[in-house]
Queue: 2 jobs
Job 1
Amino acid sequence: MDNNALEGITILVAEDEYMLATDLAKELANAGSHVHGPVPSLDAALGFIDAADKIDAAILGVSLQDEKVFPAADMLAAKGVPFLFATGYDQSLIPPRYCEVLRCEKPIGAVNLIRAVRTIIEKAGS
Amino acid sequence: MKLSQEGAVIKSDAEETDGLKLRGVLDGMAEAFGLLAPDFTILEHNREALRLDGRRREDVVGRSHWEVYPGSEDAELGQLLKKAMSQRVTVSLEHQYAWADGRALWLEMRAYPNDDGSLAVFWRDVTDRRQADQALRQSEERFRALAEQTEVGVAMADRDGRLIWVNDRLAEMAGRKPDEVTRLTVRDFTPPGEWPENDRLFRRMIEEGEPFVIEKPLGPPAQVTGWNRLSVSPRRDAEGHIVGGIAVAVDITERRLAEIALRESEEQLRLIVESARDYAIFTMDADRRVTQWMPGAEAVFGWTRQEIEGRSADILFTPEDRDKGAPQWEAETALREGKAPDVRWHLRKDGRRVFIEGEVVPLVNDRHHGGFLKIGQDVTSRRAGQEALRESEERLRQFGEASQDVLWSRHPETLQWTYLTSAFETIYGLSRDDALRGDNFGNWMGMILPDDRDTAAASVEKVRQGERVTFEYRIRRPLNGEIRWLRDTSFPIFDDTGELIRIGGIGQDITDDKDAAERMMVLVAELQHRTRNLMGVVRATAKRTGETSTDYPGFRKRFGERLEALARVQGLLSRLGDTDRVAFDELITTEVKAMHGSIDRVTLSGPTGIRLRSSMVQTLAMALHELATNSVKYGALGQPTGHLAVTWEMAKPDRRGRPRLHIDWLETGVTMPLAGAKAQGGGQGRELIERALPYQLKAQTSFDLGPDGVHCTITIPVSQSNEAGQENG
């Protein structure tokens, strides 16, 4: 694994499960990225997206403390920020408008996570 | 003999004897004779001429004709006589002459010039003939005028049956043009089938003078279907010889049709009365004694005509009805109302009972009460069949009404409901009366949600085409707007001939099934979510445990304990129903009991039944597990002098108004390690309290290492239902 695969990349992590959130953040930091958050709730995610100068990508848990993350996803999409869903949910519960969005099923291994983040960033840049 | 010669003879004086002879001849003539000189002096008048004049010979002879017959000179008679005299030509004239005495006669006159210049004039009285001719002419004119005007057709034929005249009406009746008729014969006015009879009657009339009457269409033109009654009489000449026939025709089409209709209906009635063996028909006199007894009555009641005629018809009633006075009531009602129903069980001769549906009517002769006519039908077997049918229908009806599914049928063309069970009211929240009102198919469609209407309409159409169809659709209850899911199994219903007579169906309210399925999907998704999160938690836990372990046995022990704690939480959660919540006292009790420390050094105090949100149970449990584990290893639960007090209570709600639980974990009597020693248990308990609970559960926490033990507080939002459910706690 390239320790600098995400060098210079700023990533927002929205995940309400503390253990998973801190784990994700640690993996991403290990790969050289700067991590926003993690944030446990939709409100916090929206606040971060609104206030942050720079977000290159986002990893969104679908469900945040009994709320769906989709408003944050829409806000990111409006800003042109690529994101992926980290989910334990069946695809059918994700609205059809996100059918193109990459989806990583939990639990997510570090290798897959970094590859997925690189994929969405490259796709957005092309 | 030539008259001119006679004249010449008379003129001669030579033969006096001949002259006398000639006078004798002239006087013997039936015709009047006169001889005129060229100056119109009358030279001679015979006896007949004198008789017609009523004058003597000496009053006439030698005088001027114009004197003897005043007014004649200027009349046509005078003109002609002068013409005959001067031009020596023969003339003739029929004229009327009136004498001075008032007599007027019609005279036929001829005048012949003689060679000697005289004029022989003959005349005779034709008054009688003239009058007869005139009378005939007038009579004929009157007759024709009458014949042309009348509604009666008139035709005249000669002896051979050739028509010599018909009036317009007869031509019209025959469908002929008046001018073509005279080329036709009597046969042309007779359908070929009637020719032999018509010919025979006509010939007999011609030969024997026998008039006849015949009814026939005046065919043969195909379009002539009307019937006519012809009265045919002989036509005779003056001598009484039969010269032909005269027919007078009257249109009797309507009468004839009425007769035919009457005959047919009479025939039908006769057939009905005779053939309807299960119709009992009989008559009674005023005292209800049987007077006429038809075969059907015998078949129905078993009494023969001989046995019952003259007996009281009351014996046909059952004893019960006789006791109730039914026979009297029936007769009185019939007299009063004009009829009385007779629908009841009757008694046969053999004692068996038959159910009769019938009627009694009074017979009225010249407004006198003439007895009664009773007509009844034996419907015993039909009634039994009907009762069986009614029972079967009743069973079906009860079945349909009891069903929670709505059973229905519709007319295949109009699609209107013909049957609808009461479950409709439960499912649609609408009374059947309201549902059946107006165009109820249209109204039904109106209750279906617009998105589902096409499906419903297409499905109904398929059933009309003979298919069986099951389809699902949603309706909106008209009264409260509630939406229900229905599943309809519909099928065509055919009669014995394969004709589609109804479409039927069973409608089931599947809203609850749909809800359950939906809930199941949510639950499955939730389970997925939890499972995958749990895997992530296990993974992270393993990682952290590994990071803080110095050897494998230590890792295995602590990781094992943590997995067990997770498993206990899952156990608590899995026992929950849909709306149940884990109570905090359950959670803390479960966790403390799992520790192998001394339970007697633990005090748990707080209200029971404080419900935790399901999403918080796992994290809170893991935090409590870490506290407890540490306490067993290093604190109150592991040291003989130590004591753990866990107290909890409901705290003030948070900013959003959510109820909060305040937990106080206080260890006392613990010998603490030296300050600066390595964090207990790798610090994971502390991290969970200080970081994870605020992060994940919006908790406010504190964690202090006091001089004789750990003091930890957690204030955490709990299930909203604790507000309402407080009194249960």
Job 2
Amino acid sequence: MEQVFEILEQNAKASPEQISTMVGIPASEVEKIIKQAEKDGTIVKYKTTINWAKLGKEEVWALIEVKIAPQRDLGFDAIAERIYQFPQVYSAYLVSGTYDLAVLVKGRNMREISSFVTEKLAPLERVQSTVTHFLLKRYKENGEIFQPSLENKRLAITP
Amino acid sequence: MLETQHIAANPETSSGQRNFISQKVNDFPPSGIRKFFDLTASMKEVISLGIGEPDFVTPWHIREAATYSLEKGYTMYTSNSGLLELRQELARYLELHYGVSYNPESEILITVGTSEGLDLTMRAILNPGEEIIIPDPHYVAYPADIILAGGVPIFVPVSEENNFAIKASDIEPRITKQTKAILIGYPANPTGAVIFKSELNNIARLAEKYDLLVISDEIYARLIYSVEHTCFSSLLGMKERTILIGGFSKSYAMTGWRIGYVAASRQFIQPMTKIHQYTMLCCPTMAQMAAIEALKRGESEVERMVQEYDRRRRVMLKRLNEIGLPCFESKGAFYAFPSIKTTGMTSEEFAERLLKEEKVAVVPGSAFGQCGEGFVRCCYATSLANIEEALERMGRFVRRKAP
């Protein structure tokens, strides 16, 4: 069953028939597994990894370290929710170490991100400090390397 | 003076020189794959199912370890037998995966690929005219290695009805006073066939009955799907009669590194090491360093690749059968070996026309021996997208040729 999800994670377009052949369980069974997973939230969403830079699209990303004073009874969750609800926030993680939340934000330009940080994020009660790192270049994302795939180095026929 | 006369008297070569090449090599047919390679190389946009190596690049941690060893200056010879650490890791690995135990000090030799291991074996054991029994179809180098070492290959046909696994009952009638060894390779190139323990036991009993060696080429041992691999030397009483040949090329995607090994009892490793020390000296140090890393930390990468091959295997087998090229279920290596008999073409014709008309390269079965005729070798070590496109084109080709 795990294999069905591994294949879908790599290729959301794989059909139940293709998956059935690859893992050797009937297509109807695969379909059932997928339906169930879509229903119970095991499959959260089908998305596509796009290299926007290829389309020349300007985008600005920043990784923001956020230090937080946790709340009694609620810990970090309440303040984390207050932050991740903002649509600018692409990913948000509670992390161990010298800061608490790692927040990945996306904007159309630098101003958009700086106004998010200065006007929305930093003034939040319990946010003690922020450190903003703008992304300069993306090498790898979601396990995919962002560069032209290696050319074929194998000979055409080998023993 | 004499030389001039000799040259003049020899009309055989166009340059006016005599033929300097040894008779044995002269008489030797070139690999059937060669011709096909030249043809394929001359064409563009070919999808090749004719490749006998992984499409994965060697896992990064292995490459990184090799690079590091170069930076640290490990560029000298190693001991003839190979780095002791590597032999120790290998002994541990063989014990863990196959339950066989070899002494790293005296029973393992690191070779330049399994190719050298095979060659060393033949040179170490053969006297002129002695016979080695091999399957047909077989890996292209088997007969060559035997003949070059002065021996005679004796072919045992393996058939589709037996899923291309060699049978002891077919071997026995071909044993003569001159027979020295039985050479088996499983999982097999070109068929992808595996041999199960029950049949291996029958072969073991033959080896005992006729006092023969068994040369077991297990380079593809890790690439095996939904069944278990049985190492030949793990069979009762067989360690002393087995020359076990293996390597890193297939399981760790390390073909270009040229590193393999021979494991056998001391009486065989010693003479092989003798030849190896004069002809090869040692396996490249960088490759040995990479192999240590592969054995220590490569397991999850092997499992990842095996799982991927298995998915592709299932897709290829299903599609081959669907397009009318019946194919037995190969359970090992990364080859499918479909029959092309319904098309009425020879395997060479089939492969050549498929290449020219649909730009898909497969290897004619006849390149692997007479009994490979009527089949082609299709390698599934290529992307699923490539496999699907290639099979689409092959389907079109077969429909067009249908009588």
